[in-house]
Amino acid sequence: MIKTSALSKTFPGGVAAVRGVDLAVEAGEIVGFLGPNGAGKTTTMRMLTTLVRPTGGTATVAGHDLLTDPRGVRRRVGYVSQSGGIDLSNPVGEELELHAMLYGMRPAEARERVAGVLGRFGLTELRDRPGGALSGGQRRRFDLAFGLVHDPVLLFLDEPTTGLDPQSRAALWDHIRGLRDGFGLTVFLTTHYLDEADALADRLFIIDGGVIVAQGTPAELKGGTGTLDDVFLSITGRSLRDDPPGSLGSPGSPDSSGTDGESVTDRSLRDDPPGSPGSPETNGGRRAAHLAGGER
Ligand SMILES: Nc1ncnc2c1ncn2[C@@H]1O[C@H](COP(=O)(O)OP(=O)(O)OP(=O)(O)O)[C@@H](O)[C@H]1O
Ligand SMILES: [Mg+2]
């Protein structure tokens, strides 16, 4: 479903965010993509969803070549970004229908499809409410519905459960498992919660400094002893959440790679600049990229 070879991204200005990543993901897997802040997770996802153009390497995603057929990739994948990226002023149902029609569905087909996903994620009663008026858990379910409305075979989720309470997190895990078990959907997700990775993912990749440093099933990585936290600490030299989003750099984060490490400046260069979930600007940019084939 995903195969990459030496996939790389160096941003203008010289930040080598991803430095030769090889991934192989099978259809119907839930894959967890782990790594400290700034490791290159979002950049990798944005390359795989055609939103960022690789500067090196090749990839096939959902049966289409990333470089020569980005439109083919785009039609078959869904992406829920770290910052959301949905217009939250629109009513939930309308926003979903609009998104479906932007993907080429006729209005009647879009209405039917949207009714289906609203039902699936327990959002039917909320269809007339603006996205901005949803609770955190409802909002994440709306994000999932948004990522799925055009019927992709592969869904990318960037930190889908960050900030949720334990119950809402567990409920979202059930939804994600249901997508794999009920529809054979392949799910590629990032998380900073190692218990989540352990519970949810069939297989894990750990990235650090733009390079894959470990991969395997949660059981393989744990090797029968210890926890994923121990594994992560021993591989990356730090705990996954040393540097929670918004903090000023990770204490003792090594920068042995010679590329940029974590810094306040780095964060200001992040891919979702305005950072505000659902900013219309982000949304418009994403739609434009999806529709117009606008890789950057
Ligand atoms: N548009 C950009 N221009 C320049 N550098 C960028 C850009 N986007 C990301 N970077 C840099 O690339 C590196 C990887 O960032 P990325 O967002 O992929 O990390 P991440 O693993 O998703 O981190 P987090 O866990 O904090 O979300 C960081 O050093 C970041 O500052
Ligand atoms: Mg990220």
TrEMBL record:
Highest taxon in the source lineage: Bacteria
Protein topology in the membrane: Peripheral membrane protein
Residue spans of biased composition, Basic and acidic residues class: 264-273
Region (Disordered): 238-296
Localization per record: Cell membrane
Keyword Nucleotide-binding recorded: yes
SMART domains cross-referenced by the UniProt entry: AAA
Compositional bias segments (type: Low complexity): 245-261
InterPro entries: AAA+_ATPase, ABC_transporter-like_ATP-bd, ABC_transporter_ATP-binding, P-loop_NTPase
ABC transporter domain segment(s): 2-234
Keywords from the UniProt entry: Antibiotic resistance, ATP-binding, Nucleotide-binding, Transport
GO MF annotation, one: ATP binding
Family per similarity comment: Belongs to the ABC transporter superfamily.
Protein name stated in the entry: ABC transporter ATP-binding protein
Source organism: Streptosporangium vulgare
